[in-house]
Design goal:
The protein is α+β, with helices and mostly antiparallel strands. 42% of the residues lie in helices and 19% in strands. The strands form three sheets. The protein has a five-stranded mixed sheet. The protein has a four-stranded antiparallel sheet with strand order 9-12-10-11, with helices on one face. The protein has a three-stranded mixed sheet with strand order 3-2-4.
């Protein structure tokens, strides 16, 4: 049995986690490079929030058209740092439950439940616990359980928020998949367009094609999709291990010169790091802190922790005391 946990709209969720108030606003996500591009208005919208969808904004629109459709839309830009931080948190929470997992895609992890007898007996309960743990971190997740990794991913795509796809027979599985649109199988765009020209729109339509003739005329991708629908082809997982270093970053909108805003940002970063440490059953013995300044320079220091900890207060005190002893800064601080 396998469990897949997915963070839908992962790049947008990574930004919402940094600023939860954005979830209540109409937002449209653009590529990171669009922020500094002179042709920013022509950049396509990659993802949208429910508030933006309700106001007529759609994926694929240009930024200019999205603003014309919804003047109050917030244009956001993908943040590789926020996505890496959120992915690390996801991996840490998953690693706290099993070491046998795969980072399948950004915001997607596949867990092998076979070594965990409790999880095998109650895969839905295990999935629900993981979804709840991510919700505590302001992340909306969905999870699916099935006999193969690919079917578990399909179950996750259909989950609200947890779905078990464990039919008693292959025919039961095909009956379940038959009415679903072909898009749930994630075929290539070329194959999807070809099947649409043939009048085929559901998984059942694809399954009803003669297997030999379909594979001969449409290529090996059709055979792969049919194997997926039949619950065949159990691929091995590419297992990952949790990192030994835990990092987080904060950029200030305007340079700061006093310790107060730095201390506030520090504690927020430590919330993330301490949560990940707890999920991985680790404690911090040292904190490496880098301050970047408006003049382009940087200062790095390592603070040893008297007693290894994953509690915010003692770790924050160690850093704040060290920073106070090294003030003033040569220029306004722009990143921590």
């Amino acid at each position: 049995m396998y469990l897949v946990v997915e963070l839908p709209h992962f790049p947008l969720q990574a930004l919402f986690r940094r600023d939860p108030t954005l979830m209540l606003k109409p937002c449209a996500l653009l590529d990171a490079g669009a922020e500094t591009s002179p042709a920013r208005g022509g950049a396509p919208v990659l993802e949208i929030s429910p508030g933006a969808a309700a106001r007529g904004v759609a994926v694929g629109m240009t930024a200019t058209r999205a603003q014309a459709r919804c003047p109050e839309v917030h244009l956001l830009y993908r943040s590789p740092e926020a996505e890496a931080e959120t992915a690390s948190l996801l991996h840490a929470l998953v690693a706290g439950r099993t070491q046998d997992f795969e980072a399948t895609a950004p915001g997607v992890c596949t867990l092998d439940l076979m070594p965990d007898r409790t999880a095998r007996r109650d895969p839905v309960g295990s999935a629900a616990q993981l979804v709840d743990a991510l919700a505590m971190e302001n992340l909306r997740a969905r999870a699916g359980c099935a006999a193969t990794p690919d079917l578990a991913l399909l179950a996750a795509r259909l989950a609200r928020p947890v779905h078990l796809l464990d039919p008693a027979s292959p025919s039961t599985l095909r009956d379940f998949l038959a009415p679903l649109p072909l898009t749930v199988l994630a075929p290539s765009q070329e194959l999807l367009e070809t099947l649409a020209l043939w009048g085929l729109h559901t998984c059942g339509d694809l399954w009803n094609l003669p297997a030999a003739e379909a594979g001969e005329r449409l290529g090996p991708e059709v055979r792969t999709l049919r194997e997926l629908m039949a619950g065949e082809g159990r691929r091995p997982l590419r297992l990952v291990r949790p990192p030994e270093e835990f990092t987080a970053r904060h950029e200030f909108e305007n340079g700061v010169e006093s310790l107060e805003p730095i201390a506030f940002a520090l504690r927020r970063l430590l919330e993330t790091i301490c949560s990940r440490l707890a999920s991985s059953y680790r404690a911090a013995g040292a904190l490496a802190v880098t301050l970047r300044f408006a003049d382009g320079s940087a200062k790095a220091r390592t603070f040893r922790v008297p007693e290894p900890s994953r509690e915010i207060e003692p770790l924050a005190r160690v850093v704040e005391t060290g920073l106070e002893a090294n003030s003033p800064a040569p220029a306004p601080i722009v990143a921590l």
